[in-house]
Write a structure and sequence with these properties.
By secondary structure, the chain is of the alpha+beta class. The chain folds into two domains: 62 residues; 260 residues, hypothetical protein PF0899 fold (2-Layer Sandwich). 37% of the residues lie in helices and 24% in strands. It has nine helices and 19 strands. A hairpin with a 4-residue loop joins strand 12 and strand 13. The longest helix has 29 residues. It is globular.
Length: 379
């Protein structure tokens, strides 16, 4: 271990208390399904601010391979310089929509329900790194805001490291970076509610929040489905056949990533497949489970974060490096529209329809950083 690595390890030990504080605060809010309070946010931000320089240094140490550094630097000149964020969240929309759509102030209800609200995307600063369990695929994807609906990025389809000892006056070997330019556009992901009686929304305040939650959750699922579909249609990703058990299959997939210079950060599984793995671990005797790198609280196996989502196909898993995929979106965020003129008769029937939509695209930066796993033996 180098002196620099020793120094970083010592620094990591120093910031452990700050990370625990931030993790505990965020976990409490998540467990209660609410945003952090002002005091909690202040504690969280202060802890992260103190730990961030060390976290950045550790991340740089993990990713200081010259080839990837050059590829990323080049990609930065092509990709839109929009705001890059860590993770996308759909959890903070309801209060803003309620205020703008229902116009509730001091207990008064507004009759002007029809209109539009632009709700900014909510980004969280990396809950996975803080040891919180991932609640879905969006928790593990890095996100980049694109200023234009059309953009370009660079994809690395090959790793061919030829670096080696060269004799004096000898010809230096050439390493292929394997870069290709990909043109992309943001796709609209949207859906609408069935018509709701106007006075229901005015008389039952919680109904608006219920509709918001249902449509917001559905939008998140649709975005996840799009990401998995885009991964499936991308050539050059790796494949891991079933090997003995789903757990061993995931571990072998992680090895495939390591062999090509990636790190297995997350695995995306259907809830039924993850349940089978957990039940298998729980039914093993103590000797068999002794020393197994499995953490049911943070939902990790072999140090890999498990994202359980119904968007995944049962019997299939994806093991990925978080640097291999980005979710592109626009700065406008989620658009929420309420209308009494959604159909020929909604106005006459005194009904209101809600529409929730956003624009997204999957950027597969490195297909080699994704392994598609078959979790079934076929027997």
């Amino acid at each position: 271990m180098t002196a620099r690595q020793e120094m970083l390890r010592a620094k990591a030990r120093e910031i452990a208390p700050q990370l625990k504080t931030a993790r505990d605060v965020a976990a409490k809010a998540a467990a209660e399904d609410r945003p952090m309070t002002g005091d909690e946010r202040a504690i969280y931000d202060a802890a992260i601010a103190k730990a961030q320089p060390v976290l950045d240094a550790l991340d740089a140490a993990r990713n200081d391979d010259a080839i990837i550094a050059e590829a990323r630097a080049f990609a930065g000149t092509v990709t839109s310089p929009g705001k890059a964020a860590d993770r996308l969240s759909f959890k903070s929309m309801a209060p803003a929509i309620a205020a703008k759509m229902l116009g509730t102030t001091s207990g008064q209800k507004s009759l002007n329900l029809t209109g539009t609200a632009l709700v900014p995307q909510s980004f969280v600063p990396d809950p996975v790194a803080l040891g919180r369990p991932a609640t879905g695929l969006l928790d593990i994807l890095r996100t980049r805001q694109q200023d234009s609906p059309s953009f370009a990025y660079l994809r690395q389809v090959l790793r061919d490291n030829q670096a080696g000892v060269v004799a004096e006056h000898g010809l230096k070997p050439t390493t292929e970076l394997g870069l290709e330019r990909v043109e992309a556009t943001l796709d609209v992901v949207a859906h609408v509610s069935d018509p709701q009686p106007r006075f229901w929304l005015q008389d039952v305040v919680e109904l608006e929040r219920f509709i918001d939650l249902e449509l917001r959750t559905g939008l998140a699922v649709a975005v996840e489905q799009k990401v998995l579909s885009d991964i499936g249609s991308t050539s050059g990703t790796q494949v891991q056949a079933f090997s003995v058990s789903p757990l061993e299959t995931l571990r072998r997939a992680a090895t495939k990533l390591e062999v090509v210079g990636h790190q297995a950060v997350a695995a995306v599984l259907h809830p039924e497949d993850w349940a089978e793995i957990e039940l298998a671990l729980a039914s093993s005797n103590a000797v068999e489970r002794m020393g197994l790198p499995f953490d049911p609280v943070t939902r990790r196996v072999f140090g890999i974060v498990v994202a359980s989502t119904v968007s995944q196909t049962p019997g299939t898993a994806h093991v990925i490096d978080s640097d291999a995929i980005e979710l592109a979106t626009d700065p406008q965020g989620v658009q929420v529209d309420w209308s009494e003129n959604a159909g020929a008769e909604t106005f006459a029937r005194n009904e209101v329809v809600c529409r929730v939509e956003g624009r997204y695209q999957t950027s597969v930066l490195s297909p080699l950083g994704v392994v598609t796993c078959d979790l079934t033996s076929g027997a």
